[in-house]
Structures are given as structure tokens and as C-alpha cells.
Known about the structure:
Two copies of one chain form a homodimer.
Chain A: H1 2-11, H2 17-29, H3 38-51, E1 61-68, H4 84-94, H5 98-106, E2 108-116, E3 127-129, H6 147-166, E4 171-177, H7 181-193, H8 197-200, H9 209-226, H10 233-240, H11 243-257, E5 262-264, H12 267-279, E6 287-289, H13 296-305, H14 321-339, H15 343-346
Parallel strand pairs in A: 1-2, 1-4, 2-3, 4-5, 5-6
Helix pairs in contact in A: 1-6, 1-11, 2-3, 3-14, 5-14, 6-11, 7-9, 7-10, 7-12, 7-13, 10-12, 11-12, 12-13
Amino acid sequence: LANQIFETCNRIKPVDSTWQGAAAARQLTLTKPPGSLGQLEVIGNRIAAILGTDKPQIKNKRIYVIAGDHGVTEEGVSAYPRDVTFQMVMNFLNGGAAINVLSRHGGIEVKVVDAGVDYDFPAHDQLMDRKVARGSANFAKQSALTAEQTSRAIIAGIDLAQDAKRDGVGIIGIGEMGIGNTTSASAITAALTGYPPKDVTGRGTGVDDKTLAVKIAVIERALERHSPKKNDAIDILSKVGGTEIGVMMGLAIGAAAEGLPIVADGFISTAAAALAVAFCPTVADYLFVGHRSEEQGHNKLIAYIGAKPILDLGLRLGEGTGAALAMHLLEASAKILCEMATFGEAGVSDKES
Amino acid sequence: LANQIFETCNRIKPVDSTWQGAAAARQLTLTKPPGSLGQLEVIGNRIAAILGTDKPQIKNKRIYVIAGDHGVTEEGVSAYPRDVTFQMVMNFLNGGAAINVLSRHGGIEVKVVDAGVDYDFPAHDQLMDRKVARGSANFAKQSALTAEQTSRAIIAGIDLAQDAKRDGVGIIGIGEMGIGNTTSASAITAALTGYPPKDVTGRGTGVDDKTLAVKIAVIERALERHSPKKNDAIDILSKVGGTEIGVMMGLAIGAAAEGLPIVADGFISTAAAALAVAFCPTVADYLFVGHRSEEQGHNKLIAYIGAKPILDLGLRLGEGTGAALAMHLLEASAKILCEMATFGEAGVSDKES
């Protein structure tokens, strides 16, 4: 199993900077002062490099919302009961969650994936069953995932990226649902970046001071117990990760292998993306971070990846909501390169020199 | 003429904070942790107050792109020749400019308005002729606009807002084109806020150090010569403003009078909006600032208005481009209130207390 992950990683090609240069040159011919579209130009040029053209088109946007439960909720780290994970999955399937609203608004397809929810769902043609466990184990006491579960989660994500490519999807967003998963994401962030847990742990869905202290202490003890290897993403995922985080990590690796841009959402999906980058650094070429989350650990991950979040709206919901909003801007950036008139075409005088 | 402006101002009603409270209460019933959609909730609640409902709908988005020439270009303050104003108007009409691309992308109608371009346009059914002058006068030497031109520009904007209301438009964006108009906007900003010109003047479309120094000196001398009254928006507009800035000021006043949300774009449109707020403070209830511009004066105007820009993408193009992108988020904020399921509807457990 692990071999398949390494093989996928080895298939990822660095993006072709020739096209980034060609797009930057094209930007200068378009009817606007040089650089005046700021990040829209930077993003557009990156998409050009990913897609290998100076007129990149993004068609068929898709967000995978991956759900999984977390054994660490036994320690009392969340403001919501564990059942909310499966209840929210039903809400996603019924179209009533924030990610549904924002995806409909942005013309984005939503795919809901059960990576490890502790619930027997009724058969539903919109729910993708990729369950690798009925929730992770409590990482305060043992490894969150077995070696096999870890590999199966990542490979499930790689397969979902291949599905997307086959379906003609042009950009993939990743979002998640899992009560307790900010605790896992904080542990991953501490393990990857070396920051102490107190600097990368926040209030998640809104825990009080007492629960926050518990959360930090649980992570401190878990890192002490497991000593995950800083440079071994799979070891970190296995010891303190979760099923949905593994699938998202696989999606990031798989998307890059398929040559597709991928958009992380907030703290948890960026933790998964950071694991993917730790495992295959070239994933970073294909990765966008949709927004800057309110969770304090997010900034550490963003710096770790070397990314620049597109939006900064104080979001801290997850589900892919920030990725959905950012996709509108990513697509806009591509359309600028495709659809704007040049100075020559429009008969507009260029800058006086 | 001036009476009509005062009457419109007097028609503006402060928004009903009851509805802001009702929307905030509704946010707490929706299937997400309280406050987890950050600015999307803040914006949604403001739109609720403007529209007088806790389920606000925004239909039919429109951006007015207002063009005008500036006599102050005689002083050599811009990187582009004056002809670019009319050339870009033709580009807007042909659909090749950035605002056209971003508006098509966002499902926004674009209306192009000639407020004071120094050019005889051929008849074109998409160009709205509201010409109040063939460009403003050079404010380094005389008032930019006569008293009559000033009033006519503002009233043209008020009328455009009424047109929009009659056409069923639900939100108005304002953008502009006018070579030389960052010089005017900087002079307005200095006059309104009291900051010295060097602190509120930037590179506009990209002038070099030498031209920037000229630009600052021109503004310093103009403010000395004219001494516009700090608290008299119409005096400031007349002395150092411009035709398109007057129309945008009128649009902001008119939109508020019609009960419509209005979205300023970057530095120049925010200068116009700030004049509207200086004239009728209640305009601020209806006003959103689409993005934070790269122009240093913009932050001073944002603080003056007490606004929080929605996007921060390093844009400095104008035309309404930042307003167009922000409208996607404004509409998203409203849809969250309208379309999300409540905890009760979705059968999701609320926070443990």
C-alpha cells in the first residue's frame, strides 16, 4: 500500500516556470497598468504554470468534504458532541450546510465522503463510502490510525483525485467535518513545525478556557508519548492524525500528480496539505490556501508551506467554506488572462515611457 | 439644483438595527458554531438591516463605471496619456476590460457612464451620456468644477441610483476611469482627513519617483490656493474633485436614499463615497468598501468612513474591479441567512452547555 503513495508522489512534476513567465508577459499586454491586479495576477500566473498555458481555463470546480470521527473526543476537547459529525454529514447530503450554500452560489460541485465516521449511514447515492475506520483511536492513549488505516486513507484521497481528473474537474477544493479534528490538526502542526502545542492550539468550534487548557495538555502528552518524527508525514498522520485528514492529504498528493490545482480551506485541511507537502514538496506548486483562519495554528502552517492565503474573513467553520469562496477568485484570475483585451486589440495607448 | 441634493440626503433613513439584531439571532440558529463565518456574518447582518429582513436577498447586481477627464493632467501627474480615458471607455463598451471580465464572471451588469470625458463618442446604445463637462478644469490653477457642474454631477448620480431601483437592482457597485483621478482623490483625501498630501498620495497607475514628487507638490499648492472647507464635501468636490467623482458621490447618496446597499471599489470611488458620508453621514449605513487598495491614501479614507474592506488582494486598477469581486461575498453573506438549515431543521445537536 505504502508503495502506491510513494509512486504517486514520484509522478508529480514541478510546474513549468516557462508558462509562469509567459503568463506574466501576457499580463503586461493586457489593458491595465502593470501589476494593477495584484494577487489576481500572481494567482493567474501560477495557474498558467500548473496548466501549461498562458490562457488557463478552469472548468468544473469540485469540493470534496471529507468526514471522520476522532477518538480523542473521549478526552473532552470539543464544544460539540461527537454525534454532530454524522448529523452534519446528513446536513451536507440534504444541502443545508454552509458549504452547500456557498458551493451553489459559486457553481461548485460538492462531493461528501465518509472517511471514518462512527455511524452506519443509510445507503445514499450522494455519499461516497470510503470508511477506513469507525473513527480514529484516542491518540492520548494509542496511535490514532494503524499503518494500514493510514495508507488506506491516503490512497482513498489519491483515488478521489483521479476520479476528479477523469470527470473533467479543473480544480479541487478540500474541506472537512469531524468533531475533535482541530485537536488533531494542532498536534500535527506542533509535530511538523516544532512549535509548542500552546502556540498552535485554538478554540476550534468555540471551547471555553478550561477546555482549551485540557486540549493543549492532551496534545502535549500525546506528542510526548508518541514522539512523531518531524520529517515523516506518514508517521505523524498515523500517530496523531485522523481518517479525513489522511484522505485530504491523499487528495493533495493525487491532485498534484494529476496536474490539477488544489485549494485548501482552513486549519484542518491546511494541516493535511502541509503533510502532503512534507511528504512530497512539489505538491506546493499546485496548492492554494483559500483563506486565513481564525485558528492561531493556521498561520504557522501557512508559513511552513510558504503560501499566501487568498481571503482573510475571520472564518473558522471548515467544511471547505473558505475554499469555495476562494475558487471564485481563482477562476477570476484565470479569466483575466483568457478574456481581457490587449492594448493592441483595444486600441488603447500603453504607458508613456 | 443644490436643493435636490439636500432633499435626497434628508430622505435617507438610518438602517433599522432591529433587523441587524434579528439576523444576528438567526445566525445562532444556523448549523455552524456561533460566529464561525466571521465577516460573512457581520456583512450578512448589515445587509439584513439595510433591507429590513433577517432573510435578505440580493438580486440583480449592477456596477456603474463612471468616466471623466481631469484638467490636472496638464501638470504631468500621470503615467498614461489623457486619451486613455476615452480609449478605455471604448474598451468597456467592447467588453475587453478587467471590469467586463470580472462582471461577466460574477453575473453583474455593467453600465458605462460618460460623466466628463474630453471626447465626442459615437452614438452607442450601451454608453450613458451624462457629460457635465469635457473634463474638469486644472485644479492647480482654478476650481476643478463650477458650482453648476458640481451639482449636475451629483444629481446625475442620484438619478442613476433611482434608475437602478426602478430596474429592480438589489446592489450597486461604483467604479471609475479617468486619467489623473488619483491626483484628485488624494487632494480630496487630504482635504477631508487633514493628512498632509505626502501621506495620502501614491503612484496611481504607476508613476516614477519624479512624477510622484510633482503630484504631491501639485496637490499641496492646490490645497493652499483653494483652502477647501474640511467639513464641506461639495466645496471640496468643486475645488479639487472631478466629474466622475461627483457622479459616484451622487450614486452613494442616491443608493442610500433608495435603501440599496452600495459597494465602493478602491481609492477613487472610496473618496467619492467618503464625500457622500461627509455630506450625509447616514450613507455609511449602506456603504461597503469592496477591497483595500494598494494606494496609501485608501487606508485613511477607510478609517474616515469607519469601514472594513472585504478583500485585500493588492489591487490598484479601479474600474470597479474590487467591487465586482466583493459582490460575490456580499451575495454569499445574504444567502447564508436565507438558505442555511437551522439546528432544528437539520436535526443537528447544538453546542453542549
